[in-house]
Automatic annotation (TrEMBL):
GO terms for biological process: interstrand cross-link repair. It comes from the Eukaryota. The keyword Signal applies. InterPro entries: Acid_phosphat_B-like, Acid_phosphatase_pln, FANCF, HAD-like_sf, HAD_sf. Gene3D superfamilies: HAD superfamily/HAD-like. It comes from Cannabis sativa. It holds the Pfam family Acid_phosphat_B. This is Acid phosphatase. NCBIfam families: plant-AP. The lineage of its organism: Eukaryota, Viridiplantae, Streptophyta, Embryophyta, Tracheophyta.
Length: 687
């Protein structure tokens, strides 16, 4: 690199070390990149400061050279390129040659601002700071400890004075050189202790102010709650409304009090301490490039111990991320808006008018003015919801109303579901865990109607979702089944809800049973040709043929997300896949006829014990062999691997009478069977 010159180190080597220093700075936050707590002790803190001191020495040496300005410009250009990368931590984007000149001070600041600042963390840090100041004195003072303590005593009065002033003098708080003894920009003497005290006082001031603000907000929030609907109000109005002909004024009063209760409840949500913290977190998270915040949320989503509450919090965080820039406006608006008497039906019609007319894909012109951050957040939210809108019912209604713009696809689905509930119909969405609990869905009384849902019924013909979209999604599904559509990675986002409804409906069950009835007819006509020599064979696929992965996809987008093999295999290891009862019956029928059953799955060989345990636990037993993909099969696609496995059976003299599978890759290729039977599955495609 042309302009850089340093007698001891090249710019390339220096940049590699700077990247390592950034990793150390990340750990000063108190957490590792995995989210686990980072434990610091005085020894490791000293090592971190040695790194920082190294950079100070490099820059100090550089400043003594004739062409140091050109070298600094070259270094800053390289740092600018490094920090502009989308994966670079946003908290360190101001890293520059000036920062590295004061690298130890920069490190002190990040240690002090670790959240939370634990006692052990602070104790280790202060021990390291004191040791460094003592080391600074070792070269010039004989009794360095006495000198250090005397200096602290002399400055004690100054510390107290400054502490008092810092709580009322904003300029003093932000001054970078309050306790910084410098000589040509370097820390010396008692500077580390002084600088640390400055930062601790600044942090204490900020914490005190935040605490005061939180107390004020809590007082306001409690006051609002006290003004909201009480049990006395409820009982009073119930008695008044029991009258045969209640006065109009009573009805209006009921409406007003109801409105006041709703307004108070939502204002309380906006001003709640938890909400404020989440807004702060959302503001920080979504200020980073999309690639970074998506990685954070994906790790949360794929966490093995993730709960429904965690998912609800993620949804809430995404919605808050859409309105962080307008937070104050919403509070002011909600406080200023007045009650206007209007019926629920009229309110709903007003909301429906927000929907743009024309084709379903047409977006309102307002979308053009929305910032890209909001669009990215809404796109991600739509993806993780995958048509399951019930998590939105668990967040504050005013938050959903404020965060979901009328031009968005999510708004259409949201309003459609509101219309279903407004009409008093049952929701078509599954919110229960009946599949995981191995229960019939009609046991779930609150969602019984979804067990009778058929994708062919005109359920939404008078609804808000355009009927052409429904026809499009039905056509897409059919064309997947007949192999006109191949190689798709995800279900079209607008069709995720339809695919989910189909795969969890009685229609899916009926379609599967019809396919297996054909197996019975085929066997009844061909049994006379069986040679009963132990070489008559039948092949089954495993996933979504014998056992169902629907419980997994229920939590992972129902085809709306790209297939995550690691996450899926983690779920498979839990051995919780339920049996597909229609296939379980035909499995035993075929076995009872004397055919040898072979299971050929694209699962990894590492899942053998988990797969066997799962199959046996749900009623499958007596198969001849289970074939899984070994290391030698990793380079083959699914179709090639299964063809190769069938060839081995043929080479061993087996006659393959039939194959049952949910993927075309399980049925095609040479050698095949005399008959193949395809079960429906539109969630994913394996080639």
């Amino acid at each position: 690199m042309g302009s850089w010159f340093h007698p001891d180190i090249s710019l390339e080597e220096l940049m590699k070390l700077i990247k390592g220093f950034v990793d150390i700075l990340i750990l000063t936050s108190g957490y590792q990149s995995s989210g686990r707590i980072a434990h610091w002790d005085p020894i490791n803190i000293n090592k971190a400061f040695q790194w920082a001191f190294f950079f100070e020495n490099v820059l100090r040496t550089l400043s003594c050279l004739d062409n140091h300005q050109e070298s600094l410009q070259e270094l800053d250009a390289a740092l600018s390129e490094l920090t502009s990368d989308v994966s670079f931590p946003q908290g360190f984007t101001h890293l520059s040659s000036a920062t590295l000149t004061m690298a130890r001070g920069f490190l002190v600041e990040h240690f002090i601002h670790a959240l939370p600042l634990r006692d052990s963390h602070l104790r280790a840090f202060l021990m390291a700071i004191i040791e460094m100041d003592l080391d600074e004195l070792s070269g010039v003072e004989h009794d360095r400890l006495s000198v250090y303590l005397n200096n602290l005593k002399l400055q004690e009065t100054s510390f107290s004075s400054v502490k008092n002033r810092m709580f009322c003098d904003e300029d003093l708080i932000s001054s970078p050189n309050l306790y910084l003894d410098t000589k040509e920009g370097e820390l010396k003497g008692n500077s580390f202790t002084k600088y640390t005290v400055q930062k601790l006082l600044k942090r204490s001031s900020a914490v005190s102010k935040i605490s005061t603000i939180e107390s004020g907000l809590e007082t306001i929030s409690n006051s609002i709650r006290c003004c909201s609907w009480s049990e006395f109000d409820d009982n009073l109005f119930k008695e008044l409304m029991k009258q045969n002909d209640p006065p109009v004024i009573v009805e209006q009063l009921v409406g007003f009090v109801t409105w006041n209760h709703w307004k108070s409840k939502n204002l309380s949500y906006f001003l709640d301490k938890r909400t404020i913290h989440m807004v702060s977190g959302a503001s920080m998270i979504f200020s980073t490039p999309k690639i970074q915040w998506v990685q954070v949320l994906e790790r949360l989503k794929n966490s093995a111990d993730r709960s429904d509450d965690d998912f609800r919090d993620t949804v809430e965080l995404l919605l808050l991320g859409c309105i962080t820039d307008r937070w104050t406006y919403f509070i002011k608006h909600l406080m200023s808006v007045s009650y206007y008497p209007i019926t629920t039906s009229e309110q709903f019609q007003e909301v429906c008018k927000l929907l743009p007319t024309g084709k379903f894909q047409t977006l309102d012109s307002k979308q053009e003015t929305v910032n890209s951050k909001e669009s990215d957040i809404l796109e991600y939210l739509m993806n993780i919801l995958s048509g399951q809108l019930h998590p939105l019912w668990n967040v504050s209604p005013v938050l959903a109303a404020a965060a979901i713009p009328s031009w968005s696809l999510l708004f259409r689905f949201y309003i459609n579901e509101l219309e279903i509930q407004f009409r008093g119909d049952f929701s078509t969405m599954r919110c229960c865990s009946c599949i995981e609990d191995k229960k019939e869905h009609n046991d779930c009384l609150t969602l019984a109607s979804s067990n009778h849902w058929s994708i062919l019924s005109p359920k939404f013909k008078n609804g808000l979702i355009n009927d052409s979209l429904k026809r499009y999604c039905e056509s897409w599904r059919i064309n997947v089944e007949v192999k006109n559509i191949m190689g798709f990675e995800v279900v079209p986002q607008e069709c995720v809800e339809y695919i989910q409804q189909y795969m969890t409906s009685s229609q899916y069950k009926a379609d599967s049973e019809m396919a297996l009835e054909e197996v019975k007819l085929y066997l009844s006509g061909s049994c006379t040709t069986l040679e009963n020599d132990g070489k008559d064979a039948w092949i089954f696929d495993v996933d979504d043929t014998l056992i169902s992965t629907i419980p997994y996809y229920k939590r992972h987008g129902f085809g709306g997300e790209k297939r995550n093999t690691t996450s899926l295999e983690t779920w498979m290891k839990k051995r919780k896949a339920p049996a597909l009862k229609h296939t379980l019956n035909i499995f035993h029928d075929i076995k009872d006829k004397g055919l040898k059953i072979f299971l050929i799955s694209s699962r990894s060989e590492s899942l053998r014990s988990h797969t066997v345990d799962n199959l046996v636990s749900v009623g499958y037993h007596g198969w001849t062999k289970l074939s899984l993909r070994g290391l030698e099969d990793e380079q083959l696609d699914v179709k090639e691997y299964k063809s190769k496995t069938r060839q081995r059976l043929v080479d061993e003299g087996y006659r393959i009478w039939g194959i049952v599978g949910d993927q075309w890759s399980s049925l095609e290729g040479y050698p095949s069977a005399k008959r193949t039977f395809k079960l429906p599955n539109s969630i994913y495609y394996l080639s």
